[in-house]
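Ticket #4471: structure output looks truncated?

Reporter: J.K.
Steps to reproduce: submitted the chain below (102 residues) through the standard prediction queue, then opened the result file.
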Amino acid sequence: MAFRKPISTLGGLFWWSNIKQNEHFIMQEHKVGVPVWPYKYRITMRENRMEIANSNDFKEIEFDWEYLKNNVVPQIDKKIDAGEVLRDIDLVSLINKGINSL
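Returned output as attached by the reporter:
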């Protein structure tokens, strides 16, 4: 699986055809594909058009689609950005604990 932190989509949208979509994701096929483009299929998030999976194999992208639908959608409201997680940590108390342990 080619999952990754969501990134901005590469290439213009006119190079892609929508194959499948639901309220959270869009599966697309590149109109030309390899060798012009490094992969043939991708899945983007509908909310912000950021790409989260790609593949040259249709069976693999279908498997990714099912995985995302069954495992990611129930957790879509959870924090995934490290910056958001770090914001919740009190850095002053963390530094004091480190200094005290020396």
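Triage note (M.O.): checked the attachment and the full token line is present. The chain has a mean pLDDT of 77.
Status: closed, working as intended.
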